[in-house]
Amino acid sequence: MSDAAFLSLEKLTLAYGDTIAVKDLDLSIRKGELVAFLGPSGCGKTTTMRSIAGLLTPASGRISLDGTDITRVSANRRSVGLVFQSYALFPHLSVFENVAFGLRLKKLPASEIETRVTAGLKSVGLSKFATRKPAELSGGQQQRVALARSMVMEPKVLLLDEPLSNLDARLRLEMRTELQRVQKETGVTMIFVTHDQGEALSLADRIVVMLNGAIEQIGTPEDIYNRPVSRFVADFVGFENIFAAEGGKLKAANGPIALSESLPPDTAGLAWRPRMVTLGSGPFQGTVRGASFSGSTREYLLDTPLGAIKAEEDAGLAAHQPGTELTFDLPVAKAARLERFG
Amino acid sequence: MTPRVFSPLVLLLVIAFLIGPFFIIVAASLSGGETLAFPPQGFSLKWVAKVFTVESFRESFAVSMFLAIGGTAMALVLGIPASYALSRYKLPFGETVRTIVSLPIIVPGIIVGLALLRYIVVPFGFNITLALFLAHTALVLPYAVRVVSASLNNLRSDIEEAAVLLGSSRAGAFFRVVMPNIRSGILAAFILGFVTSFNQVPVSLFLSGPGVRTLPIDMLSYMEITYDPSVAALSALLAFMSIGIVFLAERFLGFSRYV
Amino acid sequence: MFQNRAEALALALPAAVFAAIVFLAPVVILLAEGFRSADSWSLVAYVDFFTDPLNRTVFLRTFRLGLMVTAVSAVIGYAAAFAIVNLSPRNKGQMIGLVVLPLMISSVARTYAWIVILGRTGIVNQALQLIGLSDEPIRFLFTETAVFIGLLQLFLPLMILSLISALENMPKDAIPAARVLGANWFQVFWKVILPLTKEGLVIGGTLVFTGSLTAYITPAILGGSKVLMLETLLYQRVTVASDFVSASVIAFILIVMSFAANLLLKRLATARNKR
Questions:
Q1: What ipTM was reported for this prediction?
Q2: Domain B55-257, what architecture?
Q3: Which of A144, A339, B108, B127 sits CB 3.0–4.6 Å from C214 for a disulfide?
Q4: Cβ pair B10:C80 closer than 8 A
């Protein structure tokens, strides 16, 4: 596996009519990588995926795959597979014929089609269902047919639109394992789109967080989870206490507040998860406004001069009653340091 | 009187009012007498048999069949692509296009026939058969667009994208993936168009010429001359034909889903 | 949604152009003719048309018959639709089938039946003479009554079907709730059923009204030249007198009425979708 870009997007701008959905996007993906496009709806992740598939022609910019410029190559000649969120199986064809559809268009010999479809169905565990119609299958089975249908084409890139969102919890785990297996066995480059940070964190090698048609952050799941670089990413991955910083001080509701440690001057903000907040000691004072018990932990909402603070403690520790005055600390060492606060 | 007793009685009367005349027609057509009468005078199939021997009925039946089949086929040839464009594309002036193709359903047929006669047939020297064909096509077009559109709107459009990504062309995707799935909608549109065209009178009123007139028009003029039960017999036969077609369509297609 | 505009136009234009040339253009020219007089625009034709007492009579009769058929079909329609929705699902399907059935039969055939029933030697006259209510045949054919009955039979199914769907969309508990609160059946209808099925009534009413207004066959067969309605008058003006100006005026009146009714229908349909 080389480090060179296998799929690259350069200065990609995508638009629906006059509405610009994605602007000047640059991204390169290595061969065999499993990448997640993560973001809220309307952030441009699906649009970007559709342009890679060729279902949307870019307003400007360049897409290249495996050393070839495919920007103007039509969708049916790109060697890009797509598993639709709704699976998009052909209702009038049997499972077998659904999987064979693309192979038949390639005019492969019947025996080879037979072999490849049978192998494809076997690999997703649906050999028994070859003669059924899609409507006779469960959602999870339909999705595996869609996966097999794309994979028998041996695409260079496999795109998946919200692959786990229509499944219940048990099937979700199954599908996650399935996708990882397929990726390991075939080494196909995979990109999936999701709005669920949990999915992205658990499945991807690398996550591309998008917002308003631009990339907010690219990184490994650990990077994204522990070191968000912007307020949006921090918020999206579960940081609840997020503050802007200026001149080395925190900007709170009623003026700047000095911290125990000095900050690098280019820090735009700091963010803490509730469990990073130390209760019972520290320079700050707050009043417990509310408390909730969630089994292993207790979560508190504090009224403080900094604004509302969410903190979390082990349920094993003694509970703080609402109304109690508490001291607390926001340890700079634990905080995520934000480069952008927009 | 409470509705519980009252309802079935009303229903019975209403159904008798709606269906009764149809049975009377059937009975009158089986009469042995020379004039239209009910109760029928004796039983005979002679009027039913006569229908098949009247030359003008045979001719106008052929004309009506041609219009119903040809006109509906033409309306589908125009209407299927239009419905597809309306349901799958962001069409400039989409609403205008939809209104134009749906208008013939709102404008009374007699006006369409007269306008066509006066401003197309006469000035351009079209023959009556062609004019009838155009008029019946225009008349069926709104039904074709409506039924096919409903069928297309029930079909997800991402299956076409899936077909394209598997190597199909756009046109190929339409014929391989869309057509097989809207086939019963198209058949339903055809049947609805056929029945509408076949039973249509006003649009053809002004569009009749020597030897060319539709069956209902022919029946109207036959009634003005003769008062024998053959028109009743013909009416009964046509009614059975329509009912039969619709019954089969409902049975095998679930016709009422589309109409 | 696909983006390619050229493709979309190529698909939609044949149908639109066809309808525009074969249908829209000729009809517009025909309508324009009624507003022309000696090479300028004018309303002379309309003034002339309504000056003629026969025309006025026909216009008013058409309007009156339309309203009467609509009103009576609404009354009968409610009773029938209410009876049908209260049947078991199986019987309901069969009854709806019986209501739809006449719609599939050619209106020539359906109207023709009334000649057998209402004619001089028809069933009604035979019955009247048999029970001694009348000594000689009463003329029913070529009266407004005959046209009214014919139109009612033709369009009643549309009203019943509209009301059935309106009644079925009504909340199931509305009627029992009103009964429990002490309303009698008259109050239940007036205060509960009518307001909740108003839209179905308007949709059915529009269909029946425009249908009656623009009917040709029924007035032609059952009314003849004695009971002209707007469409039969139009036909007569053209065939007897080649009077295309009157034809244009009548066409305009019919189209305006149809459009007004349709607009109302569309307005109501969107109002319902919004809710």
A1: 0.88
A2: Orthogonal Bundle (1.10)
A3: B108
A4: yes
